[in-house]
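Tokens for chain A. Residues wanted.
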């Protein structure tokens, strides 16, 4: 006998209501997951490699302003450029003086973040082994003699720097001479308390660090004051399957705690949820060329205030914007 046949009318009504509510919740949860158009808009560069104002040369880290201007560590051009929304050319904001170590020069910058408290930019000046602050056309050296690659900043204004040579992340505040070790620092390795060439980093509101542990082909989450991290993406060796990564670089986390990774060696962007055994492809390389649905060695990642996804498409010498269509899907 059908189980519904022996239920009272009130019970059946309640049962159906619960099924409907469950279906709605599942639909809303799915709708909240960011979905992106697979054909990107080029918002900077895309005119071949070069140093003209409409060109980039191997862009690395990026950050997005509230007006959707993109600030780019234009690595091989040894400069930081600002590309306003809908502009055909960029504006050099740091280093019009060529590669060098002087106060007004850069060498192979790899990342840039904005320090709201001090109304300034923090730049990883990788080739000069230093981290600098840039404000009002002036530069201040914050950290010297460090193989810095990636940067992030917490809500208290503390700066976090990844150190490739020492396989560690340190936290710095104004006036520090050495910084405080917060992740790694136990020599090169693949243990949970070790890192191997950490590159880009991200910090959430709970002070948990997300680290692209590049040569271990994984992303680590290192909670505040923890002695070791946990693997939240990859960690199954170098490869192309959904449970693997290949030399990951950029890493960011959205409002739902989902982790986005520039899976550089696989020319795609992956998304992982903590605890999942495999990730999902959110932007595919589709052949590793230069069409609008292709990537070639993606590096830096960033969101704007609408959680549109921006990707530094390094070897295509451009910045790609993937529009968030989740709201369109839901409404």
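Reply:
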């Amino acid at each position: 006998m059908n189980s519904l046949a022996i239920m009272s009318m009130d019970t059946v009504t309640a049962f159906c209501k619960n099924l409907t509510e469950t279906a709605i919740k599942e639909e809303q949860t799915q709708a909240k997951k960011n979905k992106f158009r697979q054909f990107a808009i080029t918002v900077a560069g895309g005119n071949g490699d070069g140093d003209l104002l409409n060109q980039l040369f191997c862009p690395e880290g990026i950050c997005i302003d509230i007006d959707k201007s993109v600030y780019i560590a234009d690595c091989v051009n040894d400069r930081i450029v600002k590309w306003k929304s809908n502009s055909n050319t960029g504006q050099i904001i740091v280093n019009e003086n060529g590669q060098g170590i002087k106060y007004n020069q850069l060498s192979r910058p790899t990342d840039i973040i904005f320090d709201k408290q001090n109304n300034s930019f923090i730049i990883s000046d990788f080739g000069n082994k230093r981290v600098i602050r840039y404000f009002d056309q002036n530069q201040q050296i914050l950290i010297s003699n460090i193989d810095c690659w990636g940067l992030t900043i917490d809500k208290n204004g503390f700066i976090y720097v990844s150190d490739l040579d020492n396989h560690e992340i340190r936290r710095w505040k104004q006036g520090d001479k050495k910084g405080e070790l917060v992740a790694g620092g136990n020599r090169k390795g693949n243990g949970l308390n070790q890192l191997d060439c950490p590159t880009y980093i991200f910090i959430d509101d709970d002070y948990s660090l997300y680290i692209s542990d590049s040569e271990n082909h994984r992303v680590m989450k290192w909670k505040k004051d923890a002695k070791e991290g946990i693997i939240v993406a990859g960690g199954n060796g170098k490869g192309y399957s959904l449970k693997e990564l290949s030399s990951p670089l950029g890493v960011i986390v959205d409002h739902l705690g989902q982790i986005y990774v520039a899976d550089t060696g696989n020319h795609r962007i992956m998304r992982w949820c903590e605890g999942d055994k495999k990730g999902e492809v959110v932007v595919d390389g589709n052949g590793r060329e230069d069409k609008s649905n292709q990537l070639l060695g993606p590096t830096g990642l960033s969101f704007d205030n609408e959680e549109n996804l921006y990707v530094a498409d390094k070897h295509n010498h451009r910045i790609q914007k993937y529009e968030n269509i989740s709201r369109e899907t839901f409404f």
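Confidence is low (pLDDT under 50) at residues 1-7, 22-31. The longest helix spans residues 9-32.
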